[in-house]
Amino acid sequence: MKSISLDITKAAQFLSEGTVKAYEPAVKAAREALENGSCPGNDFLGWLHLPSEITPDFLKEIQDCAEVLRKNCEVVVVAGIGGSYLGARAVIEALSNSFAWLVNDDRKNPNILFAGNNIGEDYLAELSEYLKNKKFGVINISKSGTTTETALTFRLLKKQCEAQRGKEEAKKVIVAVTDACKGAARAAADKEGYKTFVIPDNVGGRFSVLTPVGLLPIACAGFDIEALVKGAADMEKSCGTDVPFEENPAAVYAAVRNGLYAKAGKKIEIMVNYQPKLHFISEWWKQLFGESEGKDNKGIFPASCDFTTDLHSMGQWIQEGERTIYETVISIEKTAKTMLFPEDEENLDGLNFLAGKRVDEVNKMAELGTRLAHVDGGVPNIRISVPELNEYYLGQLIYFFEVACGMSGLILGVNPFNQPGVEAYKKNMFALLDKPGYEADSKAIKERLAKEN
Ligand SMILES: O=P(O)(O)OC[C@H]1O[C@](O)(CO)[C@@H](O)[C@@H]1O
After folding, report:
1. Gap between the Cα atoms of 355 and 431, Å rounded
2. Does residue 76 sit in helix, strand or coil?
3. Which of 218, 249, 334, 452 has the most CB atoms less than 10 A away?
4. Is this structure's pTM higher than 0.95?
């Protein structure tokens, strides 16, 4: 089996010689601290050996549950936000036919929709309209079980599902993935008798894609979760404490990004793809690194672009804007399909020079040309090469980023496994909405607003 691979040559050239290698002791210490649990946030290290610890019986339980949903639903709505939806969406979109959702014929797989990740009234009303004549089920995913966006959406979906199917039938197609004991999602599941899966206490949301949080929706969509976990387990070995620095891709990635940040003033990392299906891989990656590293007034800002699309909008900035950025490109070596450019007698578009070539050849030349141009323009380039888009390599990619993120955050000197900053907006929102328990905050925020206006 092949493996994803990392090329940092076009990034290391922006650093003085030996800089990446100089991070070896720090990377080694970080990797060992993860292994022996001596780092900050050590109560959230359950993801580290998750791939190799997942049993066939556990995968079977997830597959069986997915089968019930697949048999009984045309549509499965995944209610969740942040780490409770991005990983599933990233894998499902990367593996799905881009136009499957438009196809009306006898579909083999239910349509997987995502909600509970915003508070858009139009979005929810339109979702409800769409679901009106559909046989739909719900996977309610929330580690805390109290996240407003998800809880609010679940209440709406539960009521609609029960109204359309009857309470007893609805119970068969509503599944909760949540904490073992606490939170509203757990309370509802226990009261109604829904099938549930537990999110382990020691796995934070953004590291949870290889728990039922990601695996159940991915299995519902018809993808091979065994292969996904196998890819992750193989990458777990490739990034182990016993692997030499240069051979451990996650160690090298953690080292080079810290070097670019600390020694070359590169404060922004742009995750780039050349396949639109990878859009949500970048979204998942942004949460992983953003929530893990952005604290104590430090951290690389994780951004993303879909190329070549965004070369026609963001390309100018990247080529000539402030030189505080670097790019990490996920490059897919082999496409799943083949499409050749036809010859045209009239050649009105002047494209006959491409006749007989694969579309992917043009894409690859765009990628190479962009890499050269951006490097010439002062943008370091890290390249992650993925042999092809399938479950196995996505499993590798996911684990690679997770372990690199843990190491990178520790090198930066932060706790990569907490997210205290996200509470600030929630506190204000609850105070503004007069949530019971927030009386003093409500008074204070209203007085402040009155003064400011
Ligand atoms: O699974 P939960 O508890 O609903 O949280 C969803 C997301 O919200 C956050 O807690 C931030 O508020 C993320 O860390 C998490 O992935």
Report:
1. 63
2. strand
3. 218
4. yes
| Ligand 1 centre distance from Cα of residue 314 (Å) | 30
pLDDT tens by residue, 320-368: 999 999 999 999 999 999 999 999 999 999 999 999 999 999 999 999 9
Burial class (CB in 10 A: 0-12, 13-18, 19+), 194: buried
- Indicate if the alpha-carbon torsion angle 69, 73, 77, 79 is positive or negative: negative
Which CATH class, in words, describes the domain spanning 5-38+229-412?
Answer: alpha beta
The answer to whether the 5-38+229-412 and 50-226 domains have the same CATH topology is yes
- Measured from the CA of 81, which atom of ligand 1 is nearest? 6
Report the alpha-carbon distance of residue 162 to residue 358 in Å, rounded: 50
pLDDT at res. 105? 62
User: With a 6 A CB cut-off, is 422 part of the ligand 1 pocket?
Assistant: yes
Q: How far is the CA of 206 from the centre of ligand 1 (A)?
A: 8
Question: Cα–Cα distance between 9 and 393 in angstroms, integer?
Answer: 23
Quote the CATH superfamily of domain 50-226.
Answer: Glucose-6-phosphate isomerase like protein; domain 1 (3.40.50.10490)
What are the extents of the domains in the chain?
5-38+229-412, 50-226
Helix, strand, coil percent content, the chain, rounded in steps of 5: 55, 15, 30
Whose CA is closest to atom 11 on ligand 1?
A: 422
CA 352/CA 78 separation, integer angstroms: 46
Amino acid present at 357: K
**CA–CA distance, 414 with 417 (Å, rounded to integer):** 9
